[in-house]
Queue: 2 jobs
Job 1
Amino acid sequence: MKSAVESSAAPGEETDRQPLPPGWKSYMSPEGLRYYVNSSSKETTWRRPSSSAGAPQRPLAQQNSSPYANGCHSSTKKGQPAEAMNVSLRKPMHKQPPGSISPAKRQIKEVKETKITINCVTFPLPGEGPEQQLLKPNEWSYCDYFWADKKDPQGTTSVTGFEVLLQKQLKGKQLQKEMAEFIHERIKIEEEYAKNLSKLSLSPLAAQEEGTLGEAWTQLKKSLHDEAEVHLKFANKLHTEVEKPLLTFRGDNFKKDLKKYDHHIADLRKQLASRYASVEKARKALADRQKDLEVKTQQLEIKLSNKTEEDIKKARRKSTQAGDDLMRCVDLYNQTQSKWFEEMVTTSMELEKLEVERIEWIQQHLRQYTTLRHETDMFNQSMVEPVDQLLQSVEPAKDRELWVKENKTSEVRPVDMDI
Amino acid sequence: MKSAVESSAAPGEETDRQPLPPGWKSYMSPEGLRYYVNSSSKETTWRRPSSSAGAPQRPLAQQNSSPYANGCHSSTKKGQPAEAMNVSLRKPMHKQPPGSISPAKRQIKEVKETKITINCVTFPLPGEGPEQQLLKPNEWSYCDYFWADKKDPQGTTSVTGFEVLLQKQLKGKQLQKEMAEFIHERIKIEEEYAKNLSKLSLSPLAAQEEGTLGEAWTQLKKSLHDEAEVHLKFANKLHTEVEKPLLTFRGDNFKKDLKKYDHHIADLRKQLASRYASVEKARKALADRQKDLEVKTQQLEIKLSNKTEEDIKKARRKSTQAGDDLMRCVDLYNQTQSKWFEEMVTTSMELEKLEVERIEWIQQHLRQYTTLRHETDMFNQSMVEPVDQLLQSVEPAKDRELWVKENKTSEVRPVDMDI
């Protein structure tokens, strides 16, 4: 979106291809729509003016929303109940006085309120103004959904949409820390398990079993130590490939960067609020001036006082000045809002990208966890095989031979005694 | 082996097919060899006698060992140093007196000692007697190698070969108990591990992670509980399929049965010892009688005394009686030894069978252990798969959609303020 600046026709835009009549300039609204302003008559219109200058165009009342209203009055109306506090609504200001029509006044008609300003940010009312297209359709992008402030449940303060996005990123940092903690706990469990298995593998229980059965038993005991090694290796890899990365991903600088974003956007909001205050002040001043002019004009007509035409001209001049002031204030406000808008889009897209990266990074490292688990089970399985092989080659006959050779008491049988 | 009883020719045995000359009988020795005895002349020989009765056969000195020596003397000689105490050796008793030859005396020659009795059990001396074939060649069978007693290292007592075999079986029972203990310790380790994993699976860490990543994380945590279940199952199966069987295999009755064997064999040894004592006593009595006869004969010849022929006949009769007694004692001894021999063979074969069964039973149950280990690792692996699948389907875009729908603050962008 661009600021409301004077601009030539955009490509593809429908134009009359006629030069504008004198006094008329064309501008592009933030929505990307072209409008036209006559700075002398203070008229604004969506319709490209024809060469008959000076004549009022289609009255504003019949137009939807115009970027700038006539300097004399403002054109928002009270719509649905405000979502937040500090809603600034402006009621229609004037009735047409019977019979007295001044060029400026002639423009004053009852106009629909089409916009609403909440917390100094201006939105179109529902159903008013051209339908908005999402900046990034079908993407559920941050830049489309976080313009308004959110009232907090207690109802006393509100939080900007941007804050919500920021909090999400900070939360993400906390969650990754908690995941690291979880992995750490798993590591401790594995180390304990390994320690216990290793200790038991050194047990002298049944160490006196001999022969092929003894060998198989010895290997069975040893396999516990091998299993322990597998689990220790698992624990170590968990630490270096999952826990540590989870802890160190996006260090302290990350929080600092987020804070910078936070302050920058908050500053722009403050500026906006300040501009908005100026607009409200200028509006009031204009209202006062217009009232004064009206009163004086009435008084002249009914010869209530000795006010001269001179006084009325003065009042009218002041009124016009106030109108100009208001226009300038509104213009400045809109510029500031546009700047904030741009920064919001840029920064929220940055946060969106950070979130995608965060999710993908965590996904990758948790897959490393499952890979390590899988590996561990496979290694563990292979620790049993030597045991099974030795068990398969247990031979009672061989064991008997070994034992008998070792323990026999004689190789000679008794014979009968001779006399 | 059979007792030394009168028997007819065994099948395949070489015979002269002549009837034995009168006075001769044939017997089978414990070694399974046939020998012949002339009960009147008290001759014994391996060679089948020919019809010329009464004549002395090949002198004993030229024969290897004869089952029964001539009633007048015993025929063992001092051989290698005795392995155990209570070795009973008998020296050659007589020299041939010059000129005086009585029928009995004429048989007395110097004979080699071919047997040795150790702890009341009689063995052939090395190199003496027919070579012994193993009862169960190439099998290293218990029944071939545990006839002798074993001196214990301190040198004060000895232990029978049978005791050695029995101790092995009792040891085996202890070893199986120790194996059960080992398995029990493994079970405890598994239960602890399962408990820890299960507890950690309930951790609320990073529970606030949402969307597809949150789902994957939730499943990851849950998988720890699934792993815990696998290990618990392993522990339970270890208990019912390995530990408990190891504990209950061969219950208390086994020890009782072994004790029965122990006592039975020990009793037979006691009987043998008692018979042996009788033999020794009879031998001594015979020696006394023969001495007496000799003295009296000498005295007669040198007219030393007024001993009559009558006295000498009496002395000779007593001598002969003593000889008969000795023969009977030796016969009883040999019968008892044969009985003990038979029981030893039977029982040691039983123990041998028990040992084979023990080894095979343990082998089978330890293979059950490795099977369970293998299964456990496989089940464990499958617990990781759902986690990995969910991780694979993590989609940052989807998560953004879900989160934005839930947390968005507006769907409308700001627009410029109108005047």
Job 2
Amino acid sequence: MRIADMTWRQVESYLRRDDRAVLPIGSTEQHAGLSLATDIILAARVALEAAEPLGVPVFPGLVYGITPTFRAYPGTISLKVETMLRLVGDVLDSLAGQGFRRVLIVNGHGGNAPVLGFLAEWLATHPKVQVRLHNWWNAPRTWAQVQATDPIASHASWMENFPWTRVLGEPVPKGAKPMIDPERLRLMAPEAARAYLGDGNYGGRYGRPDREMLAIWKVAVEETQDLIENGWL
Amino acid sequence: MRIADMTWRQVESYLRRDDRAVLPIGSTEQHAGLSLATDIILAARVALEAAEPLGVPVFPGLVYGITPTFRAYPGTISLKVETMLRLVGDVLDSLAGQGFRRVLIVNGHGGNAPVLGFLAEWLATHPKVQVRLHNWWNAPRTWAQVQATDPIASHASWMENFPWTRVLGEPVPKGAKPMIDPERLRLMAPEAARAYLGDGNYGGRYGRPDREMLAIWKVAVEETQDLIENGWL
Amino acid sequence: MRIADMTWRQVESYLRRDDRAVLPIGSTEQHAGLSLATDIILAARVALEAAEPLGVPVFPGLVYGITPTFRAYPGTISLKVETMLRLVGDVLDSLAGQGFRRVLIVNGHGGNAPVLGFLAEWLATHPKVQVRLHNWWNAPRTWAQVQATDPIASHASWMENFPWTRVLGEPVPKGAKPMIDPERLRLMAPEAARAYLGDGNYGGRYGRPDREMLAIWKVAVEETQDLIENGWL
Amino acid sequence: MRIADMTWRQVESYLRRDDRAVLPIGSTEQHAGLSLATDIILAARVALEAAEPLGVPVFPGLVYGITPTFRAYPGTISLKVETMLRLVGDVLDSLAGQGFRRVLIVNGHGGNAPVLGFLAEWLATHPKVQVRLHNWWNAPRTWAQVQATDPIASHASWMENFPWTRVLGEPVPKGAKPMIDPERLRLMAPEAARAYLGDGNYGGRYGRPDREMLAIWKVAVEETQDLIENGWL
Amino acid sequence: MRIADMTWRQVESYLRRDDRAVLPIGSTEQHAGLSLATDIILAARVALEAAEPLGVPVFPGLVYGITPTFRAYPGTISLKVETMLRLVGDVLDSLAGQGFRRVLIVNGHGGNAPVLGFLAEWLATHPKVQVRLHNWWNAPRTWAQVQATDPIASHASWMENFPWTRVLGEPVPKGAKPMIDPERLRLMAPEAARAYLGDGNYGGRYGRPDREMLAIWKVAVEETQDLIENGWL
Amino acid sequence: MRIADMTWRQVESYLRRDDRAVLPIGSTEQHAGLSLATDIILAARVALEAAEPLGVPVFPGLVYGITPTFRAYPGTISLKVETMLRLVGDVLDSLAGQGFRRVLIVNGHGGNAPVLGFLAEWLATHPKVQVRLHNWWNAPRTWAQVQATDPIASHASWMENFPWTRVLGEPVPKGAKPMIDPERLRLMAPEAARAYLGDGNYGGRYGRPDREMLAIWKVAVEETQDLIENGWL
């Protein structure tokens, strides 16, 4: 259930019988020939498909994340780490104040990793609340399915090319790109990073058959759903 | 055009011929029997309908805003003022760094007013960029249309009850509520505010005929579009 | 009573019988041919004249405010929004810690508007305290009196030209200035704003007879006094 | 010359021939039987008497300072250290942006000492500006005069009892108080500090003849004036 | 070479021929029966042994890190994420200002991971500087050697038990502890975490023969040294 | 006892019988021909020699401090004032949370003075904890011994030249330097400061016989020890 489809009374009623919530977070950033919103599209969708059958509400997602390295790619928006942590902290403060006790943050963007460190800090002052960060794409089962499909998988490669992240009229390039070296990339400022990355794909093919993608998606939804049900103390 | 439907190359190409962008901002908060996401639903939609015919891209909207007074209503998320200003500042920094020079922020939430004060501060260090905050619902022409329709219009009243903010199965209450006193409300902490506001409507009827609502919407879209076209130095 | 004319024992004694306080806030910024301190002079004076007959203490005023747009005018001091909010927050924390429960902030500067948004945030964690922001010059009765006197009234125009904001030897220009467009001004960085505003008056005459000014003043003091007495829950 | 008595054009004209400014800073806090505003009254007055004959403008003073230890005394307002440093930083940024190059901060409150450390940080990024913090009361010549008058001198003792810090109708206690131990005081939270300090005087007599006070004042004004004239590189 | 064994002239002289520096960071936190300073002891030592033969200076290490989950263990000091990031940022700003262009941060504490995200942000405004975060203990070659020695290796287990992290007179427990579940731990506030972790070891034996430990150490020093030499663009 | 030589259980056991801790703080900055780490070397060592016989634990020291004026000297690292205060605040929060009630901060760097102001703020919200800042080098008895040895003593002069701050192979210059004017220095940005200070010594001889230095050291250790024992309420 999307919070956007609920009234406050419905949330109040829900909180009498349950205390879970899901919060998708992502990024708006270059994804080669895919949508600039790929990370939040995928996180929000996997969250919703997993939570809806359980009747757990999904809050509106955080569409911007931490992605300074891509700033030279037009359309990329990067938050400072401090901004992102404060944003997540404020959302959690509101949720905790209303009685939510188990929050699954479904993350679609690797650069949001500092949120994980912040959660430990936040939990230290909210001992009754559990918050879990779930990187949906590299959680164990999903990642295994990705690897089984094609071991060369990366940012903006086939692995993020789902029917719902494609941009109308944008052709899928043929062939595969050799993997970039992530350690080299980490040393680069935005202009250098863009020169190094070119179209933005980190490596691998640009697309794979929908049948394979939907198989991955199914695993990801199930794994996320399993966490919403069982991923708690 | 939604940035979510674009690749970075398309944005780069756009920036060679234009330098405008639209950013919707809103809030997730109680709206009586309407969607908790009413403010961002309306801001994002009016922004998109106004910008799309002009070919100006609309960035993903900020779904959370400043709304401490509603914190006792479940489902309401409130950002600290500092968090909101930093968030807006980071987004503008990214936009300015890529060549956007005219940004219309379409705001759907009165509580986000401190953003207006912050924009002057941000502009003082970015003399080549223009950023304009547009409260779509109380801009002159739209407000006149609202007043002509029914002068008792307020937060969570009929005035925000559009086909796209209604919640499935939630009946529209009959009758009208007397206007609350906004000055009294401002003195209240969240619990007192909730006791005072009851269902959350600030006053007026709960709904009006779609024909009237669509007439208001048409004015709002046109007024917003006019600003995207002509609201610059 | 000015806090500056009191000892701590007198404040302690006052707090045994009352819990109200008044805090003027303003700005130091260009006011065309009027004093750079116009905003705080007026706010502090209206506050004192209103509070003194009631025996309510007036704290020393905040002489600097948020005014980035005027930074190109020598003598203008602008605080960042965050600084101003923290400053107000610290003052309120001290007041609340000592037992003040009703605080009227008498504001003389439109640019301080983000304080209003911050108060809601502050009140959410101080449910026993009421804080009210009063823009003395555009409160309903005062503004009506201004409009009845001369409908073209603005920043640094006749409307702020009182015997106590005039600068010795500075002549009052003849004639009236056409109103500037505030929406255009909002898009401007400091240098552009100065070029646009010229002497700094936003529009209207530069002075009016003292008789008229004192009539406005009388209304403003009464309206402010009424709030100190009755403006609470 | 007080900035409050000037227009922006007068400041602009001044900046064509000089680049100095004076900024008084103080505190609003318990001063035993003296005015709660003692620190800013004295700093602002010594600043003005010193600067006026030189034609150097004195900006409105910062009336609140860092004084957490006195928070249990009603009427005391304490800023957080961060707030005070940002406040001073914002004021200096505005001054530097308009062409001021030599700023004397006349400080009336010992607790504002962290400002000194911050100035070094600020200067490191403003190599063309000189800012000097002057504790008027313990500068060498003034302190020598104080000591020559009565070596037992302290916060809220006779040493701050000037005709302009006395509170009407407040009698000057007879006798002298033994000096408190400042190192013990530093270990105390507000309640303990108040229990320890009693009326608030740190030690010494409560008043001395005006003749002696005016002699000290004369030295203080001269010493401050000397710094405005000669205290630069 | 330790900066602590150098004068500023020696650093200046070094900067004429090289631009690399090493900065160890760690934590002071529970390590079961090992030193509370284990993380910084190991990071600083591996850094020094790697850098010294190359003549690259090692700056004094950051002894405190981000470790909120261990706060219920006496002797543990935890920094807020923001504090840690600002600390690292200030150190890097100083280094960059003096001409260092390649900085290897040798990290000994997993909880410091948010620093990695911050580095991308810092680099985005310092395009001429390269900064690399090196988790010495789980870098590829060192981790392979750890795994080859004993695959059950974790926080405060044998894997951190070196001659230089042992505490005098503290016996090494016999036997091995089953691995804790890190995902469960992440959901816990400090008190729950302590109840769950008991002595603090995450799993595995408490010690292994020095011969094995020194073999791991050798690999770690070589791998770190290799990065100082070759780990740059 | 150094915390680095303790396990968490030993600290827990200690806290059952005592509640004191010692925290050295210093700086890494130019010290003419002495070690860049002079300030933290001396603070940490005097702290340890004083605390160890009393069985009071010494926490790892803060190696970086506030020293913007020396930023043009290679090897100097300066923290922003805010960073330093947050760092100290976080350490104190952790200590207080575990039951420490009396903390002596042994400071080796004059530029860290803003910490003193911050402690009053921190104590105001921690009324059960005592924290004392001890500038070991200018505490009364130590300073008297310094003055009795040679009244011209300053930063980076003989007064900081101990066997443990000398740099191998760095000769001690003959002769003495005239004292610089600290008030002039305070007005200078880093480049000007370096031009003014030359080698970095503020004035006086560069070294004195070890016999004299050890006599000063003995006084310093005793004075520090006396505070650990008796410097509390």
